[in-house]
Each structure stands twice: as structure tokens, then as C-alpha cells.
Write a structure and sequence with these properties.
The structure is a single chain. This protein is of the alpha/beta class and 406 residues long. Helix content is 52%, strand content 13%. The protein folds into three domains: 195 residues, TIM Barrel; 81 residues, no CATH class; 120 residues, no CATH class. The chain has an eight-stranded mixed beta barrel. α10 crosses α11.
Length: 406
């Protein structure tokens, strides 16, 4: 898969690079692809910056401005990026709803810098203005000297002003005179498009890494084995660990050392970005989410049922892998031939009614709302339907937490 990304320099008054804005592209053409929604575009920029190009290579150690939609701000995935090097650019389409204000407060508390894009004053925006570190003023929209000057008068003094879409020396001089301290536009440089071949990772390896997030204690050796099984994961880990803001200043000599230095929280964030790549791919995000829900739901049922032939760990894997055929675009027999799972897991995934397969059938009946089937399986496993409601709610909540990695 080809990956494209663009960057445009943001300069200070001395015309030195202060930061780069990282922009989504679908080809070498330097233009926005309007067929791709903003959420998907931002998700791709986040993942490509950290796992494919590497922030250090993209920005040369400078800060990175990334656009965020309302959904990107509230789904928690932003916390996968290091606050030390990221400026969170709140798009002009984002409304100052209570949920957005709360999300921005949380970002500020965690050390992220906020930028308001293409600023036009609107009632209700006062809380976001007060939290902003930088406000961008589009000189093509705010197009008269009086309007441009007034921005500095009405915006709090602690907020830096960035003049955007500056196209002439006259506009640059005018912006400096009016108190703007940062500048971006074609007068300085057009966005440059960068291209790279994306290296796909094994679907099985991704799901196995997600499985590790469910363990009470991290097993670094097990995670190391999963990463070692996929050379692409090793490359993405090394790109990530060398990104600014990750905090690893030591030369890496082996994979186990890299994982230990990254630590539990760092590994969680890295796995979260791997999962985001799956979500941002051409497969519906619901497939990954449903896999996670099924995994946790199967685990909870197995734990409650106490059937010696269906351990909760095995049930978790059966639920996790139950949609592999849809995710991998291949029949289940072909997928399983490459995985070498235990026979009882394979049988369950192929529809054979062993104890694990029965739990998966019960979960599918619950998803389908088949009341009579649910009652039959509850009797089989000595469960109450009210228990299932609790287990399913817990599974949904857990899947949401894993997807957000906040």
C-alpha cells in the first residue's frame, strides 16, 4: 500500500522553521481529497507519522501540527501521540460543545498545546479561546488590514497569533506589524508531498498484541515473541521508539531492551496505533470492535460457566478470532492453516460444537437477539439472562477502552 503525507513549514518572524503542519494526502497531487472524511484523514496522519515515516524524520525534531475533527478529539486516540511534540489543531468545523470543551481541558491537563484553525469569532467559543496556545487567522478570509489588526486586539495576550495563507511580502510585513508571531503560506513554501510504501502487518499479530492488553500483568517475553513473528512490526516499533517525545534516549541493541525501555504505558500506546491502522484501513471499524467485544464476552461467559473444557483464555481467543475470515478476506480454513492454533480452538472456529464452540454460538445468538436460543444456552451453562446483560455491557466498555487507548 502506498502512503502519502504532506508537510508545510510554519515559520517565526525570522523566517526560521518553528514547526510543520502534517497534512493528509492520497497521492502525489498536492491537494485535499474531499472523498475522504476528516476523521479518517486525521487517523491516517496520526498512524503514518508515528509508525511509517516517523515524526523525527518528518519534522527534523520540530513540533508537528495535526488537524483534529470533533470525533478525533473525543474518541481518546489523540493520547497515543506524545504531547511534547504535538500541537492539536482544532478544525474550524468543530463546534464548542460541552464535550469538546471537556476534551480540550483534558488535553491541556496532559500537556498538549491547542491551536484553533481558521479562526472566526463565534459566541460560545470563549472557553476554547482561553485554552488556546495559538490561533490561526486565515488571511484569505480575514482579508482587510482592519480585520487582521483587530484580531490581536480581541484575542487574549497569552495566545500567539499565526497568520495563515500569507501570499505576499506585503502581507508578511503587515502581519508582523499587527503582532502576529508565526506565519504559514505559499509566500514561504508550498506543502511538500512525501511518499512511502506502507508495510502491512499480520492481522494475527495485531490481534495477538491486542490480546496482551487484556492480561493483568504484561508478559514482555510473550510480546517480544509476537513482534519477532512479524518483521514489519519490528520496523514499526523501532520507528515509533525513535520518535521525539517518546523519551527513549538510549541506543537500542535488541528487541527485548526496546520493549522494556518503552514500558507498559508506552507499549499500550504503540499497540493502540497498530490497532488504529486496522481501523483506518478499508475494512469497517466495526469488524475490529466486534472482535474485541466477542473476545471479552466469551471470556466472561467461560469464567462464569466454570467448564473445564473451556478456559477463559481460550474462550477469549475464540471470540477474538471469530471474524478473522471477514478481516482477512479468506475462508476460515485457510486463515487457520497459517496460525497453528490448538485443535479445540480450531474446531470451535470452524463451527464444531465443543465447549468453546458452544460459547461462541451463545454469543452469536445474543448478538442476533434470538431469545429462545439464549435461554437454551443459559440453561446449558447455568447462567441467568441478567448475567449476560452485565457481561455484554462490560465487554462493550472494555472494547471501547482498548480502541481509545486513553
Amino acid at each position: 500500500m502506498d502512503i502519502f503525507i504532506a508537510r508545510q513549514a510554519i515559520l517565526n518572524k525570522a523566517k526560521k522553521v518553528f514547526a510543520y503542519e502534517i497534512l493528509f494526502r492520497t497521492g502525489m497531487k498536492n491537494a485535499v481529497d474531499t472523498s475522504v472524511d476528516g476523521y479518517t484523514a486525521t487517523t491516517n496522519v496520526m498512524v503514518s507519522s508515528m509508525l511509517d515515516f516517523g515524526l523525527k524524520a518528518l519534522t527534523g525534531g520540530k513540533k508537528a501540527f495535526i488537524n483534529f475533527t470533533e470525533q478525533n478529539l473525543t474518541d481518546g486516540s489523540i493520547f497515543l501521540l506524545p504531547p511534547e511534540v504535538i500541537y492539536v489543531e482544532v478544525l474550524e468545523t468543530v463546534e464548542a460543545k460541552p464535550a469538546i470543551i471537556a476534551a480540550c481541558k483534558k488535553l491541556k491537563e496532559r500537556g498538549y498545546k491547542l491551536v484553533l484553525d481558521d479562526f472566526v469569532f463565534r459566541p460560545g467559543y470563549e472557553p476554547l479561546i482561553q485554552m488556546a496556545d495559538i490561533i490561526k487567522v486565515d488571511f484569505r478570509i480575514t482579508d482587510t488590514p482592519e480585520e487582521r489588526k483587530k484580531m490581536r486586539e480581541i484575542i487574549p495576550a497569552h495566545v500567539k497569533l499565526l497568520a495563515e495563507k500569507v501570499e505576499t511580502q506585503e502581507e508578511f510585513d503587515q502581519a508582523v506589524e499587527f503582532g502576529y508571531v508565526l506565519f504559514q503560506g505559499w509566500f514561504f513554501c508550498k506543502p511538500s508531498v512525501l511518499h512511502k510504501k506502507a508495510i502491512p502487518t499480520s492481522v494475527m499479530a495485531q490481534l495477538m498484541l491486542l490480546r496482551e492488553l487484556n492480561r493483568e500483568e504484561f508478559d514482555f517475553l510473550h510480546i517480544k515473541k509476537i513482534v519477532e513473528s512479524d518483521p514489519q512490526l519490528i520496523q514499526k516499533l523501532l520507528i515509533y521508539i525513535n520518535s521525539p517525545g517518546i523519551g527513549i534516549g538510549t541506543e537500542i541493541t535488541n528487541l527485548h531492551q526496546a520493549l522494556v525501555l518503552l514500558g507498559v504505558d508506552g507499549i499500550r500506546r504503540w499497540i493502540g496505533l497498530i490497532a488504529l491502522r486496522a481501523i483506518a484501513a478499508d475494512k469497517p471499524a466495526e469488524l475490529l470492535t466486534l472482535s474485541l467485544i466477542r473476545a471479552k464476552f466469551c471470556e466472561r461467559i467461560a469464567d462464569a460457566a466454570k467448564d473445564p473444557a473451556a478456559s477463559k483464555d481460550a474462550a477469549f481467543l475464540v471470540g477474538m478470532f471469530s471474524l478473522l475470515d471477514a478481516i482477512a478476506d479468506a475462508d476460515m480454513e485457510t486463515v487457520l492453516a497459517e496460525m497453528h492454533l490448538a485443535p479445540e480452538l480450531e474446531d470451535a472456529l470452524l463451527g464444531k460444537q465443543n465447549a468453546l464452540g458452544e460459547i461462541l454460538t451463545m454469543v452469536k445468538a445474543y448478538e442476533a437477539g434470538d431469545f429462545f436460543e439464549i435461554m437454551r444456552w443459559c440453561e446449558r451453562f447455568s447462567l441467568d439472562t441478567s448475567d449476560l446483560i452485565v457481561y455484554y455491557r462490560e465487554a462493550v466498555e472494555w472494547a471501547a477502552q482498548v480502541s481509545m487507548m486513553s
